[in-house]
Amino acid sequence: QVQLVESGGGVVQPGSSLRLSCAASGFIFSNYAMHWVRQAPGKGLEWVAVTSYDGSSKYYIDSVKGRFTISRDDSKNTLFLHMDSLRAEDTAVYFCAREGADGDFEFFDYWGQGSLVTVSS
Amino acid sequence: SHGLTQAPSVSVAPGKTANISCGGDIVGHTGVHWYQQKPGQVPVLVIFFDSDRPSGIPERFSGSSSGDTATLTITRVEDGDEAVYYCQVWDSRFHHVVFGGGTKLTVL
User: Fold this and answer.
1) Given CB atoms, is B101 within the 8 Å cutoff of chain A?
2) Scanning A83, A91, B1, B91, which has the fewest C-beta atoms within 10 Å of its C-beta?
3) Is A58's Cβ below 8 Å from some Cβ in B?
4) Testing the interface with B: which of A106, A109, A110, A113 to mutate, by most B Cβ within 10 A?
């Protein structure tokens, strides 16, 4: 069965860096685009970034452009989100999610359990 | 990029039908997808490409789209359907995913 397990969250100070990981299993990871989606406490869902199945295309929400980098290591079936210059407004649960459409970016068919990132002084 | 508008809340009695709407200029020009998120849980895909239902999702859940509004319909509503429902699209013009603000479904 498809499993996505995030790790790497924690409490950091504003301006710090953090790297989230998402270990995938139960499917051919290299065949799928992958996303990061976040949810601030008590708020709605907000998409963060996507990488295509081969890493050739990457897109970000404007508020994280230049600060966050999405990447993947297909040899380890792992998705990453490297976050620099963290701000209080980046505080959220970060979910990795698998792209559900073939050859396109459309929707998320599987989600991880999430990793909480808290940015606070 | 385009926004998606959802009513903050909808209430319905058990056994009745709930209609949850999602409006926006982009609706009708791209597929709309719906997620259910129960308190403390991970979102679950319930409808994709306007009206397709993933395996394991009850037939009580259906979707439609007309003009600039997409609708998630839940028939014979049960207590367990109480959740926040989000609509979502991929905006290919700006290469972004857009979520609606979410609609909290309360079962009376």
Assistant:
1) yes
2) B1
3) no
4) A106
| Ordered per-residue pLDDT tens for chain A, 121 residues | 999 999 999 999 999 999 999 999 999 999 999 999 999 999 999 999 999 999 999 999 999 999 999 999 999 999 999 999 999 999 999 999 999 988 788 999 999 999 999 999 9
User: Whole-angstrom Cα distance, residue B27 to residue B46?
Assistant: 18
Gap between the Cα atoms of A49 and A63, Å rounded = 11
Both tokens of B89, joined, read: 């699209």
Residue with tokens 């709407």: B21
SS3 B104: strand
**CB-CB under 8 Å, A100 with B45:** yes
The answer to whether the CB of B16 falls within 8 A of the CB of B107 is: no
